[in-house]
Amino acid sequence: MKHRLEALHASLRERRVAAIVAGACLMLIATLAIRPDLIRSTHTSAGQRASEQILPLQPTADNPPAITEPEASPTPKMEEAKAVPSNPETVNPSVTHPPKIEPDKSLKQASEPTRKMRASPAPPGYYVQVGAFSDVARARALQKKIMQRGWPARLIEKGGSLMAVVIGPYDSRQKAAGKQQEIMRTFRLKGYPIQYTPAR
Fold it and tell me: I need a surface site. Which of 29, 114, 120, 125 has the fewest CB within 10 A?
């Protein structure tokens, strides 16, 4: 019987405590519902206290800021000015300047296009002309290419400004014309027969 009474008293105490806690919670909730600005003021005051802790210490009259003097940079030493003569060439008369070398005019003339070079004389007869050039170097290059294939190629001046590349000679115009197709197949050059008589 005694144990039951003690258990009953303990349960009553627990219920009272739970009722008190529940009542306090209800009062807090009701207060926050009526005045929600209390939460904002609480957060604002907490933020102000945090900012006051973070702000650096401002210099005051009792605590003046420390002033650091700039380090004095070493002044460069002025080099002594050396006396420069008014005429440098007269300082050492034994030193001579190398003579000016003028370019050889003959080399310059040799490098220019040799348009006035005369071709080797060709015998009279009939030829197949496969090209004409104002540049002698191009004409000689084509002549060399044809001769490497075993064909008789020559250079003939035409009008003093052109150099013709011809294949021949042949005894007649018909024989020269008969070589046109073979020359076309061999060199991919379209030629035509001409008669050449060297000037006396």
Answer: 120
